[in-house]
């Protein structure tokens, strides 16, 4: 007799969703939802130095909080790596979200700190607007906001 392996049990799904909300952990499924236009435009503005003042950084922090909701700190990206458009010799820039919120532009061959290096090559690729770097994964974000886990 065949056994049921998967069941479409909505109460089980709802229980898992509630557990995610109460623990603050974001599932990979939620991380792969499309990013908002506001979030995309603020990240794109890092080269234009539109976030150089306190108001600009606060706007970015607010957008990140809105994008990820009440997520636990472990579920948030460590930072973002994106292609730098300041011109030669700059190659990529990072936004460190670990509390310092430092934007730094890196020259060709200059090493990136910690986990950011794993997003460098991907950030330079024209298929992606930027790369969100997490402790255990990398999420690639396209110009239209769609996300892919690597």
Estimate the helix proportion, in percent. Answer: 25-40%
Structural class: alpha+beta
Quaternary state of this entry equals single chain
Helix-strand topology string: HHHHEEEHEEE
> What is the count of structural domains?
1
Instruction: Count every beta strand, where a strand is a DSSP E run of 2 or more residues.
Output: 6
- N-C termini distance: 39 Å
Largest sheet: 6 strands, antiparallel
Strand order of the largest sheet: 3-2-1-4-5-6
What share of the residues does DSSP label as strand, in percent?
Answer: 15-25%
Mean pLDDT, all residues = 77
Segments where pLDDT lies below 50 for 5+ residues?
Answer: 1-23
Count of discrete alpha- or pi-helical segments spanning 4 or more residues: 5
Gyration radius, rounded: 18 Å
The coarse overall form would be globular
How would you describe what is shown here?
The protein is of the alpha+beta class. It has one domain (26-149). The chain is built from five helices and six strands, in the order H-H-H-H-E-E-E-H-E-E-E. The protein has a six-stranded antiparallel beta sheet with strand order 3-2-1-4-5-6. Helix 3 packs antiparallel against helix 4 (54-68). The longest helix is centred in the middle third of the chain and has 15 residues, at 54-68. The protein is globular and about 40 Å long. It starts with 9 loop residues before the first helix and ends with a strand. Mean pLDDT is 77; it is low at 1-23.
Key terms for this structure?
single chain, 150 residues, alpha+beta, six-stranded antiparallel beta sheet, 6 strands, disordered N terminus
